[in-house]
Structures are given as C-alpha cells and as structure tokens.
Amino acid sequence: MADQKRAVPENVPGNFFVDFTCINCDTCRQLAPETFADAGNNSCVSHQPANSEDERKAVRALLSCPTASIGTRQKSNAQDVVGDFPLKIEGNVFYCGFNSPKSYGANSFFVRHKDGNWLIDSPRFVKSLAAQFKKLGGIKYIFLTHQDDIADADKYASAFGASRIIHSEDAQAEPESEILIKGEKPKNFGDEFQVIPVPGHTRGHMVLLYQNRYLFSGDHVFFDPVSKRLTATKQYCWYSWQRQTESMASLSDFNFEWVLPGHGQRVHFAPAEQWREE
Fold first, then answer.
1. What are 72-129's pLDDT values in tens digits?
2. In angstroms, rounded to a whole number, what is the distance separating the alpha carbons of residues 171 and 232?
C-alpha cells in the first residue's frame, strides 16, 4: 500500500500520489497518461483527474501498479473498477491489468477465441481477474514470450488446466510447461495464431501473431512515442543484440497492425500506414 509520507516530491497536490517504491515501469502512464508522467527515476502525478473518466483511469492504474506505489488520500472507488479488467483493446483482445512485480510490471494480454482462449504472458494471480477469465470461457493456452515475464503463469495454468507454451531455450524458467517450441521456424496454432521465435532479448524469446493483425511482442519490440517508430532497448538485451536486430528485421515478412508489448508503448498502425518504413 502506498504511503503518503513517502510520496515523491514531483506529485502535484491532490488526492492521487505516487510514492518512492515506484520502479518506473510505465504501467500507470500507459493506463492514465492524463494523470501520470515520467519524473526520471519514477512516475508522478502530473495532473489530478479532471473528471470521472480520468479518475476511473487513474484507479485502473492504481490497481495495475505492480508495486502498489499509487495511493489516494481519500477513499477510492477501487472495488467498482476491479471489474473493468480484463480491459478491452479491440474486438476479442484484452489487456489484463494487475501487472506483476515478478515481471517488473510487464503487460499481459488475453484473447477470447472460439477454439479456446489465450493468455499472453501472466499478470498477478488475482481472484477477481480469474473469475472474469472464467466468465469469458477460461484459458486454454498460456503463451510465454520469454523467461522474464512468466509471473504467476503456474497458478493460472493450475486454475484453468491450461497448457503453457514456451521456447525450449527459456524453459528452465517454467520447467513444467506443457508445450515446448524448438528451433527458429514459425509454428501455426490453428488458422489464426502463429508462434514466431525471435532470439535476441533472450535466447528463447518468441512473439505471437494473431489474425495477421495483432503482434504480442513481449520484450522484443515496442513503440517509441518520441521517434514514432518501432524500437528495442540494447541496454536490456540479455542474449545477443545482433540476433535481436536480425529478428526485428525478419518481422518485415509478416503483416500486423497492432504491436502489444510486455514493456513499452503499444501502438495501432492504420492499414494505410507502412510500419516497415517507421
């Protein structure tokens, strides 16, 4: 629980605040950019919510913060907002919320599908979220992009009898995974899902392409709002930067409009836009 006595000095006065336990993971800034901003070493409240919509977004950020670093000086409507998750992005694709400190606050996603639902990477195991997954038909597959963002995948797998998918090169992080991907060739799961190995960030990193429209990219690529292009971070490359850049280039062979990363900004390119030129 966030502590008012440890609130960062960059917060503007008002109800919401961020304290010094913040790890600057960007979760709150993605969910409520009207309220939260980057203060360098941490996030801060740059503007107090101006209306009920902004306040609801700020409470979503409070609930999703992996380190419980966001607080309110007055009682919030958190219980009314819990049911917003998983939060629809578009169609049958959702953002899970409840980011986990085990994955340094990485995003996770949920796809509702007629042949069985997919969880992409894992949020914290939260009973309310698991109940929502159950209402949506449960979970058939848990796709783990790489060893860093596994979080509570084992608990969701146990709760739903789901099969975990991970690359053999990263399988030591989730050794009881039911499905191991080997090699570097893409593998189809039905007509709409394609698992694509992209070694670089880790030796066994993979991305998931859904409907040739949604790319769940883990820590492989994300959108940089400053340069307006897809990018990656050499500083946080744990295996091979050369392999990562090669893997990034190989994505030009695939079609997609959305990039939904574990860390960093997600983006939707309109069909007429040429992301390859970005």
1. 999 888 999 999 999 999 999 999 999 999 999 999 999 999 999 999 999 999 999 9
2. 23
The encoded tokens of residue 202 equal 């880790």
CATH of 85-277, one of 3.60.15.10, 2.40.50.140, 3.30.40.10, 2.60.40.1120: 3.60.15.10
What are the extents of the domains in the chain? 4-74, 85-277
Which one, of 185, 195, 80, lies nearest residue 146 by Cα?
195
Residue 239 to residues 166, 200, 217, Cα–Cα distance (Å) = 17, 5, 17
Please say whether the beta carbons of 120 and 145 come within 8 A: yes
Q: Show the DSSP H helices in the chain as ranges.
A: 27-31, 52-64, 78-81, 127-135, 153-160, 241-250
Spatial contact of 25 and 263, defined as CB atoms under 8 Å apart: yes
The pTM of this model reads 0.95
> Closest Cα partner for 260 from 141, 119, 139?
119
| CA gap 170, 238 in Å, rounded | 12
Domain range 4-74, CATH architecture: 2-Layer Sandwich (3.30)
Name the strand (E) or helix (H) holding 72.
strand 70-72
